[in-house]
Amino acid sequence: MSNNNKRTLREDWRMIKRAVGILNEIMPHFWFWQVVCTLLETFTPYFGVYMSALMVNELAGDCDIEKLLSYAAITVIGIFVISIIIRLIQRKRTLKDYMLWQQHEAYIIHAQNHLQYEHLENPDVVLRRSKIFGAFNATGGGLPVVKWSVQGILSSILNIVFSVSLTISMFAMAAEGEFTGIWAFVNSPLSSVLILLLIAVNTVLSVKISANATVKMNEAVSDLAHGNTRYGAYMRLWGSDMTVFNLHRIVLEEFRRHMLRPEWVAKKEKIQNQHSICSNILSAVMNILLFIFVAAKAFIGVFGIGNFILYQNTISRFVDAVSSLASEIGRLRHNNVYLEELYAYLDLPNDMYKGTLAVEKRDDNDYEIEFRDVSFKYPRTENWVLRHVNMKFKIGDKLAIVGENGSGKTTFIKLLCRLYDPTEGKILLNGIDITRYRYDEYMALFSVVFQDFTLFAFPLGEVVAADYTYDSTKVRDCLIRAGMGDKLADLDNDPQATEKDALKRAIGRDYDREGIDFSGGEMQKIALARALYKDAPFVILDEPTAALDPIAEAAVYENFNELVKDKTAVFISHRLSSCRFCDHIAVFDHGQMIQHGSHDELLADESNKYYELWHAQAQYYTEQEAT
After folding, report:
1. SS (H, E, C) 116-177
2. Cα dihedral across residues 292, 293, 299, 303: positive or negative
3. Closest CA to 400 of 240, 264, 603, 233
């Protein structure tokens, strides 16, 4: 995080202004209700004090009963009406507050979903995101502080405005008659000038004390935010291995190291106590001086007892408001170190070119993909992952991509799906560079099951459809085709389940007692069903049977053609037995496609990589091959 001292006031203001705009974007009209509610909440006590001063002055003077009754009626009715209005507005503000924080994380997640894919694999970006949520959870740093501080600043400003408007007349008032000594000074304009000067000095000192305390507190909590992030990550890693290996002790130790830190607590308390003591002493001294000044004015007859109560109350509120304003401004400025991290994340560039050509909608799904001299290296590295790849395949082709770990297979798929663009060369769809197509339409051509697929703890039907609404018949058909028919029937007939429709039961028990715990192989089948439900022309399977037992794996391969039907299928596999079901096999080695052909053609060449890989795995499928 950068040092706030390097930023100008204008830069700080721009950052705060942007944060205020983001909060209003997240929850429209939020600031309107905040301002109205704060205005009425701040006004109410001044109204009561002012009316009380009128009544005291009347009691000390003519004691007109009609006036006293009218003042009392105005006070009671006014406060009653204002209280009702405040209560109604507070309900609206509370709802907006609640919705704001519900939408806050959704806003950041939405921004993340629109990031260029390479940023999601960039460790620096991942760390920045971790810092953002770590600061949010540990200290409220970032947008939450803007909300709280702006509300505090608004309240302080309104207190200053109301108190000054009710008090300013006091500084111009003077008693009639001749005074000598100290009383002459009290009655002169010089005393008012001196008091105003002291108020200005008090304001400057309050700002400096608050700013210094905020800087020290930011330094103290920055390490805590990091520890909070680490501890949160460990808490999410909960499973049977935690018990078997007694890994709870590691989590507990992390908690002790990064959360239960007596030295941090002591440092935090020291900073807070120093700030509190300095602020309280400053406020106390100022309040004493102002009390003496107002009392002296009242003593020599500048104003009556009612005005004394009024001025003393409003000046005290003024001093507190100035101190609070200084504190909130300092807090707001130094919160910009967190806003910098947030803005750097939100402003990550998405410079992937997105074309304007519509992808041709073909009833026959006649699409052809061509890799033309494609080479690629990941951002921030100089190592080539793919070099001079040339390949062409058409709709209906079944292509297997094989090779050892690190040979470039998964990178090939990422380029095909346009998660990245080639560093050199082109990828063509029906003879046109894929960068010229509309990005969303091109992405719609692919259904992918990655090795590290994600299934949310949503109802099974929603997970397969990747949507809240779905065709239940189609979902069931896709699950059956993926090999989940028997499991689906068992779930529908589960006598202990309250919800008899398996598609409406959640995956896992994280949020639903009647959720379904699936095995790793079953989860992979669900991911496969999701790919089938999308019904895209290209189906890409990255290690589609890695988590399946041999019987389930054999069933997938036996029904392979029925599974993908007339679609183009691209397999990445370490199990070469799957390759016999494919029309073409591409062998990758050290980032280059070194062989291409059918299973029989590649196996006939005993000097090449495919033959070596096949016979290295022969023990796993020799019996199957003999049959």
Report:
1. CHHHHCCHHHHHHHHHHHHHHHHHCCCHHHHHHHHHHHHHHHHHHHHHHHHHHHHHHCCCCC
2. negative
3. 603
Q: Give Dmax over CA atoms of the chain in angstroms.
A: 124
Please calculate the CA angle 298-301-306 and round it to the nearest 5 degrees: 50
Measured torsion, CA atoms of residues 414, 418, 424, 430, in degrees rounded to the nearest 10: 120
Torsion region of 538: left, alpha or beta (phi above 0 gives left; psi -120 to 50 gives alpha) = beta
**Poorest-confidence range of 244-253, 346-355, 461-470?**
244-253
Residue whose pair of structure tokens reads 């297997």 in the numeric block: 400
| 248 falls within a domain | no
- 581 and 495 both lie in a single domain: yes
Residue 161 to residue 44: CA distance in whole angstroms: 14
- Residue 350 neighbours by CB under 8 Å, 6+ apart: 114, 115, 116
CA atoms of 2 and 308, how far apart (whole Å): 49
DSSP annotation of 429? E
**In the numeric block, which tokens belong to residue 298?**
């009242």
Q: What is the 3-state secondary structure (H, E, C) of 171-218?
A: HHCCCCCCCCCHHHHHHCHHHHHHHHHHHHHHHHHHHHHHHHHHHHHH
Q: Given phi > 0 = left and psi -120 to 50 = alpha, else beta, which region is 63? A: left
Picking from 346, 381, 409, the residue at the C-terminal end of a domain is 346
Instruction: Characterise 430 by phi-psi region: left (phi > 0), alpha (psi -120 to 50), beta (else).
Output: left
Residue among 398, 399, 379, 378 nearest 593 (CA): 399
Q: Is the pLDDT of residue 424 over 90?
A: yes
In a domain, 499, yes or no: yes
Distance between CA atoms of residues 371 and 426, nearest Å: 6
Residues 341 and 404 in one domain: no
Q: Residue 506 is part of which domain span?
A: 368-626
- Residues in contact with 214: Cβ distance below 8 Å, sequence separation at least 6, in sequence order: 330, 331, 333, 334
User: Residue 238: pLDDT band by 50, 70, 90 thresholds?
Assistant: low
310 assigned to some structural domain? yes
Number of neighbours of residue 253 by Cβ within 10 angstroms:
11
> What CA–CA distance (Å, rounded) separates 31 from 12?
20
H or E element at residue 373: strand 368-376
DSSP assignment, residue 305?
A: H
Pick the more confident residue, 400 or 260. 400
State the Cα–Cα distance between residues 250 and 612, nearest whole angstrom. Answer: 44
How much is the average pLDDT of 46-71?
Answer: 86
What the block records as the tokens of 245 is 């290996």
- Residue 441 neighbours by CB under 8 Å, 6+ apart: 358, 359
Report the distance separating Cα 23 and Cα 32, nearest Å. 12
Categorize the per-residue pLDDT at 618 as very low, low, confident or very high, splitting at 50, 70 and 90: low
pLDDT of residue 312: 84
What is the strand order of the sheet 538-542 is part of?
Answer: 446-449, 538-542, 568-572, 398-402, 584-589, 592-597
Residue 165 has pLDDT above 80, yes or no: yes
